[in-house]
Amino acid sequence: MVSATTGGAGRLGGGRRWAVLVALAVGAFGAALPPRWCPAQDPAPPAAAAAAKPGMNDRQITLAVKSYLEREHFTKHPIDDEIAQRWFSIFLEALDPMKVYFLQSDIDGFMQKRDSLDDLVKRGDVTFAYEVYKRFLERVDSRLPLVERFLSEPLDFTKQESIVVDRDTTAWAKSEEEAVDNWRKRIKYDLLVQKMEKTPPEEAKDKLLRRYRSFSKRMHQMTADELLETYLTSLTSSLDPHTSFMSPGTLENFEIGMRLQLDGIGASLKSEDGYTTVAEIVPGGAADRDGRLKKKDRVIGVGQGESGDVVDVVDMNLNEVVKLIRGKRGTIVRLKVIPVGQTAPKEYDITRAKIELKDSEARGELIETGRKADGAPWRLGYINLPSFYMDMAGARQGQADYKSSTRDTKRLIDDFRTKGVDCIVLDLRNNGGGSLPEAISLTGLFIDTGPVVQIKDADKRVQQYDDQEAGVSWDGPLVVLTNKFSASASEIVAGAIQDYGRGLVIGDNATHGKGTVQSLIDLGRQLFQRLPNAPSLGAIKITMQQFYRPGGMSTQLEGVKSDVELPSITTHLPVGEGDLDHAIAFDKVPPATYTPSGRVPPAILSTLRERSGRRVAGDEEFAKVARDIEQYRRRKTEKTISLEEQEFARQWNEGKAAEDEEKKLEEESDPGRPVVKRDFYFREAMNVTADYLAALAGGVDSLARIEAPAAAAPSSENAPAPAIQ
Q1: How far apart are CA 594 and CA 452, in angstroms?
Q2: CB neighbours of 647 closer than 8 A, spacing ≥ 6?
Q3: Do residues 7 and 514 touch, judged by C-beta distance below 8 A?
Q4: DSSP secondary structure of 57-102
Q5: For strand 462-467 and strand 450-457, is the pairing parallel, antiparallel, or unpaired?
Q6: Domains and CATH numbers, the chain
């Protein structure tokens, strides 16, 4: 086994898909499709799945995945006909989520093998995946001429017709004629979206044509490894949404994300309508130091070394582009680039270097807000923690300086203590989880020895995991900020802090609700334990346990409720654990023995909520949030969207609040983002914090004698304090 991990939360929901940065893999990690590892000196992409046959290890991998699922998964659910039916549906929707490519007759043909998938997997047989994918490519190829046709013809936007946008109610076309009409509507929808985004008509048509042509080309480039990962993850997802199979490339990216470093040029890439576009430049990375590559530049070619041939990467699978650019530190990669706003390409030679992904590590800032009884401001040590990371390889090797979220957070706390802060604010918003040991050790920075989390395994045995290190790094007031994207390890920390009464939790109504623990099993190491250099066969991330708070409640589905809730549209978005298919049920275990600290007296909570409620009611920005929530709720009930232009615009605008949240999430992945975003939501969280500190200092009655705290302000230098490293 590689590690225990609490996993993370997905970000798909609403009437439209949540925008996800397609890849961060050049100096970062993650990808839309599972990558396959290949050496930097061998840039040739692997064979496409359509042309390849199942790999020589596919049978062995499939049998191993099936065996681990039946032996180790928390539910102990056998791979039977019920799982086969789920697997069938998940795989088809993974390829064709909006049901626009396959025909119902295709599905009917596939159905003949649906109930035998559980029997086929017992033999390690994955040929069904190739049969389905072959038909999918045929349908993709047949739809492209329809796209070209409808983009070249005049379309009537005054006609009263609509398109189904709800995935649960849409259906595959029953005939080719119905499919043609569906695609006419789809292109109308795409053009209306472009119009809402102010794209000129001809530019919109060119953009959409390139998008669909590029999609077709990328689908033909899908590798055998990618198809196997998609197919086996459809099986694993039939048991719960967090169990998955990782191909060797995906495993490599996962480990990069945990250790927060790799060799590369330090740039985030995404795929846009056939082009590989620079999404962000990692501060301090090789590209940043070179200075020529800019955000929104388009990479159209990649060459190795000073004189290697430049490979054309237009329409290439993004994962393959990433692998061409990534490489050993000290080596040169040449990028053929069309700079933003220009048409003539330029060539940049950049020397690869070690990239530290500091945008994903703990960062801190000193904040002053409100006022004490003597008129001085409260001094807050703010810590932004995006994930619970740990360099697992470094820890295994006993490296003294391996990367760790707990170590980084402790350094920040130590620095804040020397500056005389009154309170630590730990921001876990959008923190999707990570290492379970890190969640336990980080909680130990704030509590003395005692239980942090209880874990139940598949055999119903409950084990208690304690913070075993005596003493604390911070024994003063503590505030934890959460939202619906705070998941897994974040919920362990927030739940323990709340159960101990150690700190005040402020945020959305509840956190994500992911209360399960996954273990990462490296298949190569497990199957070839006697070999010093085991082959890379990928890994299975498998749900083996469920975790519970010290008080005995699981966070599964329920999440951690905020002590003081602030109105937010994310509370209402269908992005929680309960919105995922086949989520494990909520339950509880007996409480552990622990001593609450009493740092959040129940007597002050009602006063804090009442004071915050009054401020929120009089704040125009929160009033806009309330209007957005109401519009979103109304839009959420609609399963279709009109293709008549005026009605489309009305529905589009009603869904804009969710769209704005998507943009915020993209901004929060920007490596150059500030440590803290001082918006109205954060300002009110700091107001509540100041009230909390005043109540602790002078009792509940003291709150009635003070004015509402002032808005959160920078430190006394009258400028945002730099991130504390």
Answers
A1: 9
A2: none
A3: yes
A4: THHHHHHHHHHHHHHH-TT---S-HHHHHHHHHHHHHHH-TTS-SS
A5: antiparallel
A6: 78-246 (no CATH), 250-259+261-356 (2.30.42.10), 358-518+540-703 (3.90.226.10)
**Which DSSP symbol is given to 585?**
P
The dihedral built from the CA positions of residue 160, 165, 169 and 174, taken in this order, carries a sign that is positive
Strand ranges inside 549-654, DSSP E:
564-565, 640-642
Say how far apart CA 550 and CA 10 lie, in whole Å. 26
Going by pLDDT thresholds of 50, 70 and 90, the confidence category of residue 289 is confident
Whose CA is closest to 614, among 479, 702, 709? 709
**Alpha helices in 465-601, H assignment, sequence order:** 489-499, 523-527
Which tens digit of pLDDT belongs to each residue from 686-700? 999 999 999 999 865
Q: Is the confidence at residue 69, as pLDDT, over 90? A: yes
More confident residue, 268 or 574: 574
What tokens appear for 243 in the block? 């169990």
Between the alpha carbon of residue 273 and those of residues 137, 212, 217, 222, 300, the distances in Å are: 19, 8, 11, 17, 13
Decide: helix, strand or coil at residue 621.
Answer: helix
Closest alpha carbon to 322 in 22, 20, 49, 673: 22
* CB 503 within 8 Å of CB 600: yes
Q: Which two tokens stand for residue 493?
A: 């920390």
Judge whether 286 and 350 are in contact, CB under 8 Å: yes
Q: Tell how strand 564-565 and strand 504-507 pair up.
A: parallel
pTM: 0.80
Cβ neighbors of 95 (< 8 A, separation 6 or more) are 101, 102, 132, 133, 136, 230
CB 347 within 8 A of CB 307: no
Q: Which pLDDT belongs to residue 527?
A: 82
Report how far residue 539's alpha carbon sits from residue 641's, in angstroms, rounded to the nearest whole number: 41
- What is the distance, to the nearest Å, from the Cα of residue 590 to the centroid of all Cα atoms in its chain? 32
Do β-strands 378-384 and 423-427 pair in parallel, antiparallel, or remain unpaired?
parallel
Q: Give the separation between CA 221 and CA 431, rounded to whole angstroms.
A: 33
Q: Do residues 421 and 366 touch, judged by C-beta distance below 8 A?
A: yes
The answer to whether residues 500 and 563 touch, using CB atoms and an 8 Å cutoff, is no
The Cα–Cα gap between 41 and 22 comes to 25
Least reliable range by pLDDT among 15-24, 116-125, 224-233, 440-449: 15-24
CA gap 572, 310 in Å, rounded? 48
Q: How far apart are CA 141 and CA 216, in angstroms?
A: 7
**61: Cβ contacts below 8 Å, ≥ 6 apart:** 228, 232, 245, 523, 537, 538
